[in-house]
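User: I'll paste a sequence; please echo it back and then give the predicted structure.

Assistant: Echoing your sequence first, then the prediction.
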Amino acid sequence: MSKKLEANGLWESSRMMLPQHKERIIQHRTQIHYQTKPLIHQDEWEIITQNIDMSLNYTLQAAFEVFNESGNRYIHGIVTSVSSFGKKIKIEMENGFEWVDFDQLVAVKLEEGGV
């Protein structure tokens, strides 16, 4: 088999490869790993708001799944404040607190054994 068809030889042997083509290929490879925010059904939003309310009123520990393009992240803590104006919730964790946009939430689940 020809060495031009192995590994990177295909790109190096191509005389039609413009810098713009190469840039676009690299850009496409980096965007493959990004994800779009899922659409959340109205019933799921009700569960999310119920769990936020329970965590706020009864100081229950909850797990928050927050959307991120490169992969969702998880926060464990207690809701201490809800800002209806900015649509943000303040989550108190062991090492401090964090404000999270309500629109970025994917799921909120109460954990066993509140603090």
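Residues 53 and 79 are 8 Å apart (CA to CA). Residues 42-110 form a domain with the SH3 type barrels. fold (CATH 2.30.30.520).
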